[in-house]
Amino acid sequence: MKTLRSKTAAIIAIFLVSTITGAIVTLPTANAHTPPWTITTHAFLTVNPNPVGVGQPVIIVAWAGLLLPGATVSNGIRFHDYTVTITKPDGKTETISWPNVTDTTSTAYASYTPNQAGNYSFVFSYPNQTYTWSGSYQNDVYLGATSKTVKLIVQEEQLSTPISSYPLPSEYWTRPIEGQNTDWRAIASNWLGYTHPSIFKMYQPDGAAPNSAHVMWTRRIDDGGVAGGSNLGIEGNVFYSGLAYNPRFAAPIIMTGRLFYELPLMNSGVGGGWVCVDLRTGEQIWYNDKMGVDSSYPSPSFGYLYDFENENQHGVVPSGILFSSNFGVAYDPPTGKRVFNVTNVPSGTAAVGPKGEILRYQINLAKGWIAQWNSSKLWSTGSLGFTPDWNQTNGWVNASTAARYDWNVTISAPIPTSTSASYAIASDILIGNTAFAGAAGTGTPNPYTVWAISLKPESRGTLLWMKNYTAPPENVTRFLQAWDPVKRVIIYLDKETFQFSGYSMDNGEKLWETTPTDDMSDFSYFDVTHAATFSTVAYGRLYNSGFGGVLYCYNTTDGKLLWTYGNGGEGNSTFGGLYTPWGRYPLFIGSVADGKVFLFSGEHSPNTPLYKGLMVRGVNATTGEELWTLLGSMGYPPRSYYPVAEGFVLYHNIYDGQIYCIGKGPSALTVDAPMTGVKLGDSIVIRGTVTDIAAGTTQDEQAARFPNGVPAMSDGSMGAWMEYVYMQKPKPTNATGVEVVLNVLDSNNNFREIGRTNSDTSGMFTVSWTPDIEGDFKVFASFAGSESYWPSSAETSFVVDPAPPAPAETKPLPPDMTGTYVTYAAIAIIIAIAVVGAIIILVLRKRP
Question: pLDDT per residue over 485-529, tens digit each?
Fold first, then answer.
């Protein structure tokens, strides 16, 4: 006997229950009565699938054909002691029982796996049920039933195994993702905003990210680039791009294939309203000119997706919500409409719960308690499903009531009130510490205190450890830099010595300390000015970069330096030469996602015109290998992030004032063959084009410059080619196209390859081929795709006619007869001469 083994089985059973509840009746209400009533019930039982193979599970659903009066999710009015007796083909029996039926619909369910071929018998029974709860039906007796039997046929032949998902896409795809494509969860993702706890220190844990510099589209967010004209202070002066204090595109959100961001107003980075565009095309979906302008419409701060589960609803609430800071105002993502307001949200250290809810750990060290506030409790959990409280409160929700909390417990030991919480892992641990020196300060509190409190259900509120640490010597300033929740390490950075150190999250013991490399630039001193944005942790590694121009990768287990990027040769260099005073271009982490680190160069307030050669870079997060580069910059952290979602990374390019969307895009292939028949033995030319059909190629400039389409280029040429297509840079002279494979299906129905070639910088490809048989041919041209493009293909046809007949053949003379023929000819000539001579003499004689 086996009980439910998976959520899938439970969902199947619940679906069945939901389907049948329409046929279940509730007895009419009645006044109290004596003697108690005796009420007949009816047993119902299903066992499916039927038939089934040996060793394959079936779902048992059993129920009494009525509801107990007053049964709700929140009470215990239920049937009890259901039993299903199973008789196997060999006569042995097994029993599945339910001492208490948990479902309000009087339904119980279980999974069972038969292990013998033959006929099984399932008999459902339950005893009399006395209504023991108060009310009109108290002491009434619901008669038991043993009348329902189901036969199950178990066969040796197996039923086909259900697919868990359809395959990952092999072609260009968009939202919505069809619901049976379960495995596509690995490539689909959302960037819920840098203030959302799921995007912790620029790390995107979900979805895919681009392996190429291919541009999907660009969209102007502000006037950018060269202003033009004279009397503008400096020759070639450019429009100000915001940079440190007025950044553009500073807090974008990506949710379910939509990108949300704020427009700038004049010199400010904000105030121009919010816009929503399609992530894959850049096409505008809506614009709200009040959002971020009118005080009643504050700017969105983060996105919210939540899985709501109860007896009637299962799944993520459609579209999600856009929330302003601290949950203040909620907006509908597809329309931008203001939906409701939330007040009195408590402060606290945030973490993400198992269903997408945001949890906040509110702690009072003076009074010694800690509580968990749960954002999902802004909604009621009634039996009808997802029911917003604001439907009942005129659009205002009070977030401070006790109903919004999961629990409140006492801390097991006193903790100094001079400390505060700094980091939390939901249902695991809360870390707190003494406040360290700010960006403008020096030195470290001596001693400083760090502590950890358990958030686990079995030990909630227990002080796990608390330690006092001696400050580093010589007035060194220590920063709490990062946390690794997987390797469970707390990481500090000492500003003046450039040293990282790691401490155990579980006991506070020191684990390791790094040694700075000999070539580390003293500009690294400034890397902790905004400590939270120069380092991030992912994949058991600490990544750090900054004004020194080098990305360092350390193992968070032992602090070992694994690799560096930026201080090597070609393909691993940020050397700026005479372009900047920095030596190496400053290098900042824009985001980490899908095994890649995305980097950009910039500074706080660069001169104008801007330094040449600033680049966006993609680097392998495991090896440090440079994957791609593209001219561009987003300015200066900590106010700049590169959102990553669904295979795309986006940024504001300060060189031209446009948003760039980078990712794998669609391609198109054409192929042509001769439209008239060719003779067998003649060669033919097959030709066509491979083009980039991303949305950006239809923008005004690109469509005008490339009326026949933007040619598709190889991954190795992509960076320079995109700079040519979208940034008005010279056309690369060494760009290479993509490989096209040609196959034919000949008149004998044989499918065979006839050639491979690369397209050129016009997108064209040609192949010459001589057909070897006559008849009808189909040509199949295919581009297999690359890191830059999804695949494409096309087909055409031609016919090969029979070869023309050969000219008539002249037979040669036999070798031994040659002399004979010559002799005969000579004799004939002599005779002819003699005859002619005789005729002449005769004529002369007859003359008078």
Answer: 999 999 999 988 999 999 999 999 999 999 999 888 888 887 665
Q: Which is it for strands 448-454 and 429-434: parallel, antiparallel or unpaired? A: antiparallel
Residue type, 828: A
Residue 419 contacts residue 463 (beta carbons within 8 Å): no
The CATH-assigned architecture of domain 667-801 is Sandwich (2.60)
DSSP 65: S
CA distance from start to end of the chain: 146
Let me know how long the chain is: 848
Asked whether the beta carbons of 669 and 782 are under 8 A apart, the reply is yes
Higher-confidence residue: 308 or 294?
A: 294
Give the rounded distance of the alpha carbon of 773 from its chain centre: 49
Return d(Cα 336, Cα 263) in angstroms, integer.
Answer: 14
Domains 191-663 and 667-801 share a fold: no
Domain 191-663 CATH (choose: 2.40.50, 2.20.28, 2.130.10, 2.60.40): 2.130.10
Q: Single out the residue of 492, 494, 586 nearest to residue 548, CA to CA.
A: 586
| CATH superfamily entry for domain 7-155 | Macroglobulin (MG2) domain (2.60.40.1930)
355 secondary structure, DSSP code: T
Q: How far apart are CA 485 and CA 461, in angstroms?
A: 19
146 and 125 in contact (C-beta within 8 Å)? yes
Nearest CA among 714, 688, 713 for reference residue 782: 688
Contact (CB, 8 A) for 64 and 79: yes
| Residue (of 238, 232, 223, 224) closest to 608 by Cα position | 238
- The C-alpha atoms of residue 628 and residue 663 are separated, in whole angstroms, by 12
Burial class of residue 630 (count of CB atoms within 10 Å of its CB; 0-12, 13-18, 19+) = buried
* CA distance linking residue 705 with residue 725, whole number of Å: 9
Indicate the domain borders of the chain.
7-155, 191-663, 667-801
Pairing of strands 792-801, 678-679: parallel
Asked which of 243-247, 313-317, 326-330 is least confident by mean pLDDT, the reply is 243-247
Residues 762 and 756: their CA atoms lie apart, in Å, by 17
Question: Sheet of 58-64: strands edge to edge?
Answer: 43-48, 58-64, 107-112
Please state the separation of Cα 131 from the chain's center in Å: 53
Tell me the pLDDT tens digit for each residue of 809-847.
666 655 554 444 444 444 344 444 444 444 333 333 444
Omega before residue 176 within 30° of 0, cis: yes
